[in-house]
Specification:
Length: 95
């Protein structure tokens, strides 16, 4: 792992680490990515013990700790957040 990535991982906030932990427990969190009136709405935010901010999710994605998995529900496309292999390794080493 490069030094810049290691430095960024060390700069994760406690809520970001908590979000990653809870996602690893298979808690459901998805964003509606089908063009419609509710485009960009998040589903599953109430499944978490912390407030979830999109910037935290995108930071975890930028660091490759999570990825989005496309799912379809009632003909709508959702992108579900999943913990990546790197995210699991990070949690195993730091929690």
């Amino acid at each position: 792992m490069s030094n810049s990535i290691e430095r960024r991982l060390k700069e994760l906030t406690k809520p970001q680490v908590q979000l990653l932990k809870e996602l690893r427990e298979n808690r459901y969190l998805a964003i509606l990515s089908e063009p419609c009136a509710q485009f960009g709405d998040w589903s599953g935010k109430d499944n978490f013990s912390i407030n979830i901010f999109p910037n935290s999710i995108f930071q975890l994605k930028f660091l490759s700790l999570i990825y989005f998995e496309q799912i379809n529900d009632i003909n709508l496309r959702w992108d579900r957040c999943r913990v990546s292999k790197l995210g699991k390794e990070f949690l195993d080493e730091n929690t």
